[in-house]
Amino acid sequence: MMLEVHRVPGGFVTGGFTDHHVHLQLVDATALAGSVLGRVIDLGGNPEALAAAASREQDESGVEIAFAGAFLTPPGGYPSDRAWAPAGSVREIADADAAARAIAEMKDAGASCIKVASNSTAGPVFSDELFTAIVELAASFRLPVVAHAEGPGEAQRVVRLGATRLAHAPFSERLTESEIDLQAESAEWVSTLAIHGDGAYEIAVDNVRRFYQAGGTVLYGTDMGNGPTPPDLNPHEIAALREAGIDGEDLLRALDPVPGAPRLFIPGDSFDPLLARPLTPADLEA
Length: 286
What we know:
Elements: E1 5-8, E2 11-14, E3 17-22, E4 37-42, H1 47-60, E5 64-67, E6 71-73, E7 90-92, H2 96-109, E8 114-119, H3 128-140, E9 145-150, H4 154-160, E10 165-166, H5 177-186, E11 188-190, H6 198-213, E12 217-219, H7 235-243, H8 248-254, E13 264-267, E14 277-278
Parallel strand pairs: 3-4, 4-5, 6-7, 6-8, 8-9, 9-10, 10-11, 11-12
Antiparallel strand pairs: 1-2, 2-13, 13-14
Helix pairs in contact: 2-3, 5-6
């Protein structure tokens, strides 16, 4: 991943940061306007509402919004029974024909990826055959599959079947070294470390540390809307990534600054994102 950051007197300028896992219908999205975020990726919501939000926020706040649209899940699968899931945010998929209709619907709404739920701790998951069919159908629309993988073996299974991004760094179990190596070759992980309690947190941080050391791509993401997550840079997520060994330029790379016109100023000689603030004309003066 290329990193666009430029040295100026007194610090660095770069694009607004990216949060690769948010749920805009569960937060006050208008607060993004005052944040250091330049782009967010919604991974589960009502596609019509998200398409409207994407147009509105781009115009009003300058923050880019990309989205997956609805969760695809088997009948009765996660999160179809969750009270927090907004109306219209889940499509229960029984077969390949239903999958094709749902994927076409998300594409027409403007989705940039497809979100598939594979949570064996909370209900049924897709068979290998249907999951593979969903991946292939999504690929026909040039849409990658992002998977919520939870439960023993699910992170390994969904990547083996073609998911190219995990919505959460694996937290159900400690992956073996060979599993880590395969993940590093095949998929990107969105961090979402700070949402977990002690046991799952320790597992996720350990998995991320070894995945990163194996050359895997880790992307900053918070699951914004899951608990009291701010509609801005989350210092707890930054601390967790540092605990996993990701810091400096690599931490900034995980934050995936939006390319193009600079939006942020980071003072000093380090790449500390916690020091970032909106760029002003005075920051560019010698």
